[in-house]
Amino acid sequence: MLSSLVSPRVARRLSAVAAVALALGVSACLEVSDPDADNRFGSITIRASGGGAGPHRALPTAIFFTGSPSTLPNSAAQTDQCGQFPLTGEQLVPGTLVAGAQLGLRVGAQNLTLAESPSVPRIYTMPSPGEFVYSEGDTARVTLPGAAGGFPGSQISLRLAEAVRLGPLTRTEVGEDYPISWRRDGDARSGIIISMRYASASSTTEPNTQLLCLVRDNGSYTIPGGLLTEWYTSNRAFRSINILRWRTNTVEVDPRSTLYIVSTIDTTVVLAN
What we know:
273 residues, 3 helices
């Protein structure tokens, strides 16, 4: 299990993928009290989708906020773990701090900027359409000018996540283990999140439940059949598998300020199995 301790205020403002890691590893810790808000956090998320070689289109967002001391999720998982959770959409909670008028984002030869959204203050985004293009192997470097009374000036960089090239999926029967394989394009700092999505008995029109597995990026994982009872007995028409690679980095800017970045890319396979 993950040993992180994350306050509710911090957990609410992390990206969906980081929230997955929290849910799997520290769900009991999310009920801890949040007696003070002296620590400053910056959370930068770069999301992409696709299963090919690229180039990939990515959507960056950044928020800055205060919260209690926390250890943030790390993509370099040392253990494999699974859990069942509702399937819900991501809702990004605005921050409470500013980090300057514009943030600098350099990807390859591209010099880009993020600024507060006119419609939703305290969320930094790129101008419409809000995306940039990257090739596998590219690194993103984010530079914050800082703001008095807000988040301090700082810089963080991260190699952007590579698409997951899935291996053949084997047709399995009820109760059997489910093997999943992928090409090993990641590194020691990347991780894989597998989402087995399906419609539970309470929903007959759309997927509403997922078995989530947070695993090491070593090319394969076999989901125990005992965890897939509901999956196997669900409506075949609503089954799918979403595979996501994620990579994180954290910089301790000063004793009270932590800057966190996560890059993700996912692909979905719709199944009749």
